[in-house]
Amino acid sequence: MAQRVAESERGSRRIRAPRFVMALPAWIWFAFFFTIPVLWIAYYSFGYKPNIFSTIATDKLTFDRYSEALSPEFLHVFKQTLQISLLGTLLTLLIGFPFAYWLATRVAERWRGVLLGLVIVPFFVNFLVRTVGWLILLSPGGPLSTLLLRWGIRDQPIHLLQTRGAVQLGVVYNYLALMIFPLFVALDRLDPALREASKDLGASRWRTFRQVTLPLAAPGIVAGLLLVFIPLTGDYITAAVLGGAKGNMAGALVASQFTTAQNWALGAAQAVILIIMILGTVALFALLGLAIRTTARRTRRITLPAPIERAT
Amino acid sequence: MSAVPAAGLRRRRDRVAVALRVWSIAVYVFLFLPILVIVVYSFNQGRVLLAWNGFGLEGYRTGIADNVIVDAIKTSIAVAAGTAVIATILGSFAGIALARRKGRWTPIFLLLVFIILVTPEIVDAIALLIWYVRIGGPFGPDVTIPAVSYGILRLWVGHSLFATAVVTLIVRARLEGLEESLEEAAADLYAPPGRRFRQITLPLMLPAVLAGALLSFSFSLDDTIISSFVSAAGASPWPVVVFSSLRSVLRPEIASVSTLLLLLTLFAIACVALVLRRGGQSGEEVAKTMTVGG
């Protein structure tokens, strides 16, 4: 990459090296171990499995793996994955927002640090072990079942494991913190004076929330949605622990092609479809969000006596 | 509108406040419930984790005597330490460059960092597997570098990608938040670049570097998917061992060792928090640095 040598903006500085030189080690690291390998997946997805002893051959390139990967049985799993991850993302937002709002606006400043720190403590227990915690809780002989039986609320053990509901619960649990942090940062930055001003100008609480708090928290919401939705869609560990066959996720399809079936070309094609599905969904919602924002701006436009141009 | 009596307004206000508080307590219960279950079941005297069979320390006793588990923990810690070192060095320099040497390259690099942060782990995992098999060398079983097995090397590299991206963003955020004036003042006072970095920039960015190292370490300990794809036989980290025992029988040792690890992690975090606090950050700043890097 032929970048220009930095012209020194201030006279006191004499930098001859290109400006990105300190980022160069990271850049090379990422290129060699991330960018090229990920592109290699795309390349392998056009290959095939030559015989039972080899994993991949690329002497003939075809689109056949894609039609295989889009066969009804696999397509069903992709659809189910998308449903679980969309609902899971929405639920983390609905659970996380009131919590982050409370933490950022209702908690005294000296407690905020401790309470925010408490949120991460569960996440220092290994991802898998945390999920095993739910496995114990929800199992027919587990604490929840025992309590319900003892209190006479149910007359037989619960059977929540191996269901879609258990998978849904598990993913919401495992990704909730990733939603809470960006929401908290956005809400914490919000100057309380803005909400007070809105109130002083006669806005109701709901209107203040809708027209002041929510728009200003929007960057945090978007960050949270992305941080939860993308890894959640690729996750299959939670589903493997809690859902059994019912919670088969797209990530598990890819994994099984590499670990058991040893058909790397098909696995690579499924991975590419997974990526396209994720990016497509994100793009769709981004467009939707933009459309909503544009209409909201248009309908709520305020004409000031002296028009102020806002640079955005 | 204005006829709302003050007492009525008060009550409405309180209702929202109470609802928010109850909701938040419920969230904490939700977050801690499975952890509590793990801690309680770590004292399960039975031979199967899921079946409670009396209170005892059997799980701890067999857990710390089990060679497979002890080796797995050792591997995990070695991998996490290496990951933290690689990510901290690469990420700190990239973060400095992003904050202090802006140019046309910055948006492209940031985009790459964001892509790495959000790429599903399964994609990283198979990409690395394909790549390691393809390039071989020290990443394959044929060439051995003394002291570092190829399994460990594969894990270091695999875990360092996400971790480096995290450190980069944290260090960048920290330096962006600080004016460049101190560094400029040092330059005006004829401090050479090396000294300027050592005496001004480094102390300023140290909290971010520490937080980044800690996050890298805990990310590496937590990782299951990449590890299960790229680790070599004989060098399985802890999550891989837990995952494979899920397919056979879950024993209470898993919970006991996890509880010990949690205590160890909390201790490490407390140490880092103390260092940050000594460095003059308030409680909220410490928590923010360690969780969101801001």
Task: Output the keywords.
heterodimer; A: 312 residues; MetI-like fold; 67% helix; B: 294 residues; mainly alpha; 0% strand; globular
What does this structure look like?
In chain A, 67% of the residues lie in helices and 0% in strands. Chain A is mostly helical and 312 residues long. In chain A, helix 3 packs parallel to helix 7, helix 8 runs antiparallel to helix 9 and helix 11 (250-259) runs antiparallel to helix 12. Chain A starts with 23 loop residues before the first helix and ends in a 13-residue tail after the last helix. Chain B has 294 residues and is an all-alpha fold. Chain B has helices spanning 6-41, 58-65, 67-100, 105-118, 121-135, 150-176, 181-188, 193-222, 225-230, 238-247, 252-278, 283-291. In chain B, helix 3 crosses helix 10 (238-247). The model of chain B has no long low-confidence stretch (mean pLDDT 86). The interface between A and B is large, with 97 and 97 residues.
Topology summary:
The complex is a heterodimer of chains A (312) and B (294).
Chain A: H1 24-44, H2 64-69, H3 72-105, H4 109-120, H5 127-138, H6 143-150, H7 164-189, H8 192-200, H9 205-234, H10 237-242, H11 250-259, H12 264-299
Helix pairs in contact in A: 1-12, 3-7, 3-9, 7-9, 8-9, 11-12
Chain B: H1 6-41, H2 58-65, H3 67-100, H4 105-118, H5 121-135, H6 150-176, H7 181-188, H8 193-222, H9 225-230, H10 238-247, H11 252-278, H12 283-291
